């Protein structure tokens, strides 16, 4: 049955005029439409024989090209230099103006404006109407659906097979296969995958993570081989320094990242050395609670009770007295480090089913809950953000982060840490400075629930860039230094902190994981820390 194509019907429903079985005077082939096409061609326009232009359409273009089976519905307005491909529809009350290139199979909804020009208005002393026009043009590629009441502004390219939702204001390019909605329009998903696209920041972060992951996989085995002192039969943090237990633990942590047991020792020999390390008296015994316990854990062993008992055996009264005696105003960094050792000792007691530490653990949690600054979300005085940020990181890592306990207050933590970053915390940052920032942002994320998410992602990308630069910079040697050049400080190994070291390498690779996870691309690194900087 032929589709009815009376002049009014075709004008407002022109798909009836260009249908394959459309016949009659109101069809594209009908005399009225052919007369309009002839008249427009006489003005220099290029119109296919099967195109349709409603009588109520206003064509005031310098040049119009209209392809096969394409139509301009009633009350459409076309001006400027416009090319429209085959099988396109420009529906009622739509405007296509300026320099516009439209591919094949494009649907343009009612009352949509595609504006391939703009008014100049830079000079406030000259009326806008006298400042002239500029045009960059608009391109709409093939198989695009632009909904009703959309505005597409000059300079935009809309990629093939994409969809622009009704009422959107398109101010920037839309990639192929995208679904874009809103004012200004934003891409909400990819038609091929159904998933939201990866933001540009995340894409840059992923690229950095891929570089660092590949570099670590290549360099860490060589770095560990060079860190083995054959004479001492032990690991050194960097060339020219004595072997340390910390270096041994860092070597095991780094080896775990790339799936190897380092050095000339078997896993059992590593375990035996580390289990007796706290007895040698050459290094701070407290620190062994931190590094030795996690290294043994990676090797499938447990820290001996005698190594942590003096902490885990504290009574509740002793725990409170010890915490109250710490200087949380001027030296929150040191105070947090003490809590880190206490909390880690209690972690090993818990892992070993040692009931002695449970009372101390409950007391520590209660003290922390009642002494946290609700304004900053941290522990320590807000007068010195570096002290409180670093101290809070140490405290959190050794206690609630290891125990899987959420304390809330993520918004305050995010605000404080981002303020710390804006004040220059990551300018010439050491590995410790960068780790404090990304770990706390990561820890705060569950309770922050997307709060200032874009700013957090920017910081994550910045830190990934610092990690890549630290590893591939000009410090000399292989790996990453703890601190950038020009830093005046010492670290536990006694090595120059600005030279590549096991400590610096392990910390930068670990903190890069937190940054990458904040940016949604931790998988690109190819590793997850499982030792002292583990995320669970």
TrEMBL record:
Pfam families in alphabetical order: Hexapep
SUPFAM superfamilies given in the database record: Trimeric LpxA-like enzymes
Keywords from the UniProt entry: Repeat, Transferase
Coiled-coil region: none
A GO term for molecular function: transferase activity
Superkingdom of origin organism: Bacteria
Presence of the UniProt keyword Ribonucleoprotein in the record: no
Gene3D superfamilies: Hexapeptide repeat proteins (2.160.10.10)
Protein's UniProt name: Transferase family hexapeptide repeat protein
Naturally occurring in which organism (per UniProt): Salana multivorans
């Amino acid at each position: 049955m032929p589709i009815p194509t009376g002049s009014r019907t075709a004008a407002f429903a022109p798909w009836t005029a260009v249908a394959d079985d459309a016949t009659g005077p109101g069809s594209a082939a009908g005399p009225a439409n052919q007369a309009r096409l002839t008249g427009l061609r006489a003005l220099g326009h290029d119109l296919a024989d099967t195109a349709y232009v409603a009588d109520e359409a206003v064509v005031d273009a310098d040049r119009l090209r209209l392809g096969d089976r394409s139509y301009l519905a009633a009350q459409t307005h076309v001006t400027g230099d416009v090319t429209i491909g085959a099988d396109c529809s420009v529906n009622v009350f739509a405007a296509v103006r300026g320099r516009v290139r439209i591919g094949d199979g494009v649907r343009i909804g009612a009352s949509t404006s595609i504006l391939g020009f703009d008014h100049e208005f830079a000079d406030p002393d000259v009326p806008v109407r006298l400042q002239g026009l500029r045009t960059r043009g608009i391109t709409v590629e093939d198989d695009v659906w632009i909904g009703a009441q959309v505005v597409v502004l000059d300079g935009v390219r809309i990629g093939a097979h994409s969809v622009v939702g009704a009422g959107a204001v398109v101010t920037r390019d839309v990639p192929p296969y995208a679904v874009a909605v809103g004012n200004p329009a934003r891409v909400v998903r990819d038609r091929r995958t159904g998933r939201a696209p990866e933001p540009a920041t995340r894409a840059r972060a992923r690229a950095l993570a891929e570089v660092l992951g590949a570099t670590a996989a290549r360099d860490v085995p060589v770095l560990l081989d060079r860190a083995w002192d054959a004479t001492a039969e032990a690991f050194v943090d960097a060339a020219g320094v004595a072997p340390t237990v910390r270096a041994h633990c860092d070597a095991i942590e780094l080896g775990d990242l790339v799936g190897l047991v380092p050095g000339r020792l078997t896993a059992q020999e590593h375990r035996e050395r580390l289990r007796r390390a706290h007895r040698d008296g050459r290094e701070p015994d407290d620190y062994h609670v931190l590094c030795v316990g996690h290294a043994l854990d990676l090797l499938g062993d447990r820290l001996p009770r005698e190594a942590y008992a003096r902490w885990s055996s504290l009574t509740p009264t002793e725990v409170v007295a010890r915490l109250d005696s710490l200087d949380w105003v001027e030296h929150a960094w040191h105070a947090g480090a003490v809590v880190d050792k206490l909390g880690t000792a209690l972690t090993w007691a818990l892992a070993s089913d040692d009931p002695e530490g449970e009372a101390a653990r409950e007391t520590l949690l209660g003290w922390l809950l009642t002494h946290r600054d609700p304004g900053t979300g941290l522990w320590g005085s807000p007068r010195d953000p570096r002290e409180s940020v670093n101290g809070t990181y140490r405290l959190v890592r050794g206690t609630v982060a290891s125990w899987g306990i959420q304390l809330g207050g993520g918004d305050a933590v995010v605000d404080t840490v981002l303020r710390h970053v804006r004040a220059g915390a990551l300018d010439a940052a050491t590995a410790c400075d960068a780790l404090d920032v990304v770990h706390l942002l990561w820890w705060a994320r569950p309770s922050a629930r997307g709060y200032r998410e874009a700013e957090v992602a920017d910081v994550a990308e910045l830190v990934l860039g610092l990690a890549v630069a630290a590893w591939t910079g000009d410090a000399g040697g292989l790996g990453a230094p703890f601190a950038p050049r020009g830093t005046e400080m010492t670290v536990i190994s006694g090595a120059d902190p600005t030279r590549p070291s096991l400590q610096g390498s392990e910390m930068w690779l670990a903190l890069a994981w937190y940054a990458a996870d904040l940016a949604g691309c931790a998988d690109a690194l190819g590793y997850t820390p499982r030792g002292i900087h583990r995320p669970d």
